[in-house]
Amino acid sequence: MYKIYYLDFFGRSECMRLLFDHFSLPYTDVVLTQPDLQALKLEQGKLEFGQVPVIETPEGAFLCQSLAILRYLGRKYGAYPESDAHTAYLIDSTIDGMEDYINHFFKYHMTPQDHPLKSELREKWLSFSDTLFSVLEKRQPKEAKYFLGCENITIADFALAAFIYMMVLNEANPHYEAIKPVWDKHEGLHRYAEGLYELFKTRFESRGKKPF
Ligand SMILES: N[C@@H](CCC(=O)N[C@@H](CS)C(=O)NCC(=O)O)C(=O)O
To answer: Which residues form the GST N-terminal domain (predicted)?
Structure first.
């Protein structure tokens, strides 16, 4: 069985949970407190980068870096069409775009309210959101079930589903009210997002509420 070592967030490991559920692969969450994390950092060979998420494979290997793990699982279970270089590029650059969003979001979120750069960081985050949603809208054929109109599910769908229902359409996210109007403008994505919800409904409706 796979094990996911992470903090008590959906965060960078949610795309892996969606993939495990989709392919009916058993997994268990090892939810770490900060002291647990500090202790785990001292255990040789487990957290190579001193960060989580890390997954332990059924064979006992510890894998780190969330996006590398997602690609690894995608390759292993047929959800990463690498033989088509252009499709793989579109998938990778979409996932990198979400990573950039997360960096903008947390820079803004972690900056104290009275910091002189707070409103500039908010503008940068919202402006990047608009850019990201425009790119997604352009890449996604309106009627298609899977991202880019791929015939089968890919890691982009797992990453996008995790992202949209954690960072955007998540009322428990502290900046939901700010991001929702930006999302609402990008109508071309709404049907795809509804399809993702249906696909992962069991998890979304049983996982509880967390800010991200
Ligand atoms: N590039 C890494 C980033 C991982 C990361 O920043 N992890 C955070 C939690 S989301 C962490 O481990 N923080 C605790 C620490 O660095 O002590 C990945 O994608 O896995």
So the answer is: 1-81
Domain range annotation of the chain: 2-77, 85-204
Ligand 1 residue neighbourhood (C-beta within 6 Å): 7, 11-12, 51-53, 65-67
What are the pLDDT digits (tens) for 16-29? 999 999 999 999 99
Full-model pTM: 0.97
CATH topology of domain 2-77: Glutaredoxin (3.40.30)
Give 45-74 pLDDT, tens digit per residue: 899 999 999 999 999 999 999 999 999 999
* HEC readout, the chain: CEEEEECCCCHHHHHHHHHHHHCCCCEEEEECCHHHHHHHHCCCCCCCCCCCCEEECCCCCEEECHHHHHHHHHHHHCCCCCCCHHHHHHHHHHHHHHHHHHHHHHHHHHCCCCCCCHHHHHHHHHHHHHHHHHHHHHHCCCCCCCHHHCCCCCHHHHHHHHHHHHHHCCCCCCCHHHHHHHHHHCHHHHHHHHHHHHHCHHHHCCCCCCCC
Q: Which atom of ligand 1 is nearest to the CA of 67?
A: 19
Whole-number Å distance, alpha carbon 52 to ligand 1 midpoint, is: 5
Fold: same for 2-77 and 85-204? no
